[in-house]
Design a protein that fits this description.
alpha/beta; Rossmann fold; 8 strands
Length: 360
C-alpha cells in the first residue's frame, strides 16, 4: 500500500488539475494542463478546492449538444473518433430512466463495518421484469464520485447515448450502474482515500453486484445464501475513466475476471498494471476475455504513458487477446477529458455484450 499511497499524494493534484481543465471545455485537449507543465504543484487541499466538478463538466457538454433532429433511418453507429449528433439528441420517445439506489456496503478500507452507499442506475426504455438484462458498471476518476458521469439527471450524456443506440437498433438496451469507487466509509472526494480505490473489487463482489442482481432483472440466478456469479460473467461489463480505467484493469480484468467478460479502459491512470503483469496474471486463467477496449488521447500528459503501457502490447504478450477480435487500442487527438471519455463510452457501449456470442 505504501507505493499506492505515495502515488496518490504525487498524482492527486495533477489529475484534479487536468480534470478541472477538462471541465472548462469538453471538446478540446487539456490546454491548461499543458500550460502548467513544470510549474510547482499546489497543495492537495488547494487542488480539491479549486476543482471544477465532473458533473458541471458533463452538464456543459450536454448543453452544447446539437439540437438538430435526427432522421429515423436504421443503425449507422460504428467505432469512430466522434459521436454523431443523432446519438446526443435527447429523446422523449424510446427513452430510458435513471434511478438512485442506496445499498449496504462495507468499510473495506477501514474496520469492515457496514456502511450505506449510493449509486445511479440507468434502465433501458420499457424496462420489464419479464426480460433479462446485461449490466455495465461504469466507474469514475480520482476526483469524482457516483455523479461524475452525469447519471444523476435525465439530461445525462450517458443516458442520451444509451437511449439513441437502443432506439436506432445499434444495441440491445442494457443497465448501466455508476457507483462511488472508493471502498470505505470516507467515500467522498477525500485525498486520504487513495487506497480505497484498490479495494473496490471486494465491494463489487460482496455488495454492489449482489444488490443489483437481487433488485433488477439480470441474467444471474441470484440466491441470498450465495450463487455462481461466474456463470453469468458474459452478461457483465466494467469500464471507467482515468482512475476508473485503472480499476477496470487492476480489479476487473486482473482480479475479478470471474465476474466480468467485457472491459473498457478510458485513459487508464498511473499504477494501472503494466501489460506484462496482466499477461502473467491471466496466463492460467480459465476465463475467456470477450473484449478489452482501450482509448486514450494523444495529448494526454496524465495517462497516455500509463494507459499504453498497460494495454498496447497485450496481444503480443498474451494469447488471451487478439487485436481486432477481442482487443482494441484506440488513440486519437485529445487530452485527459470527457471528449475522450464520452467517445470511449459510445464505442464501448456498442462492443459490450456482442463479441463471441456463441460462447455465452
Amino acid at each position: 500500500m505504501r507505493r499506492k499511497a505515495l502515488w496518490g499524494i504525487i498524482m492527486m493534484t495533477a489529475l484534479l488539475t487536468a480534470c478541472g481543465s477538462a471541465a472548462k471545455n469538453t471538446e478540446t485537449t487539456d490546454v491548461a494542463a499543458e500550460e502548467n507543465q513544470g510549474e510547482p504543484a499546489g497543495s492537495i487541499e488547494d487542488a480539491i478546492a479549486e476543482e471544477t466538478s465532473y458533473q458541471e463538466e458533463a452538464t456543459e457538454a450536454e448543453e452544447t449538444a446539437s439540437e438538430d433532429k435526427a432522421g429515423d433511418e436504421g443503425p449507422t453507429a460504428e467505432i469512430s473518433e466522434h459521436v454523431p449528433p443523432k446519438y446526443t439528441n435527447l429523446r422523449t420517445e424510446g427513452a430510458g430512466t435513471i434511478e438512485r439506489i442506496s445499498y449496504t456496503a462495507h468499510d473495506y478500507a477501514g474496520d469492515g463495518s457496514e456502511i450505506t452507499k449510493e449509486a445511479n442506475v440507468y434502465l433501458p426504455a420499457d424496462y420489464s421484469e419479464d426480460k433479462k438484462y446485461n449490466v455495465l458498471y461504469l466507474l469514475h476518476g480520482i476526483g469524482g464520485d457516483e455523479d461524475e458521469w452525469g447519471m444523476n439527471k435525465n439530461t445525462s450524456r450517458v443516458k442520451t447515448i444509451m437511449d439513441n443506440l437502443a432506439y436506432y437498433g445499434d444495441i440491445d438496451g442494457f443497465i448501466v450502474v455508476t457507483p462511488n469507487g472508493r471502498a470505505g466509509a470516507e467515500y467522498k472526494k477525500d485525498s486520504s482515500m487513495i487506497d480505497a480505490f484498490y479495494l473496490f473489487g471486494q465491494e463489487l463482489r460482496n455488495d454492489l453486484i449482489p444488490y443489483m442482481e437481487s433488485h433488477y432483472s439480470t441474467y444471474a440466478d441470484y440466491q441470498e445464501g450465495g450463487y455462481d456469479m461466474a456463470a453469468t460473467r458474459a452478461h457483465r461489463a466494467i469500464a471507467g475513466l482515468s482512475m476508473g480505467g485503472m480499476q477496470t484493469i487492476n480489479i476487473g480484468l486482473d482480479e475479478c475476471t470471474d465476474l466480468f467478460g467485457y472491459f473498457g479502459a478510458f485513459s487508464a491512470a498511473p499504477t494501472s498494471n503494466i501489460a506484462s503483469k496482466t499477461a502473467s496474471i491471466l496466463e492460467n486463467s480459465e476465463y475467456d476475455i470477450y473484449y478489452f477496449y482501450n482509448i486514450c488521447g494523444l495529448q494526454d500528459k496524465v495517462a497516455y504513458s500509463s494507459a499504453s503501457a498497460a494495454a498496447k502490447t497485450l496481444p503480443a504478450l498474451s494469447d488471451k487477446f487478439t487485436d481486432g477480435e477481442n482487443f482494441m487500442w484506440q488513440e486519437m487527438s485529445g487530452g485527459h477529458d470527457f471528449h475522450i471519455w464520452y467517445q470511449g463510452f459510445y464505442n464501448f457501449a456498442q462492443i459490450a455484450f456482442k463479441h463471441d456470442s456463441e460462447n455465452k
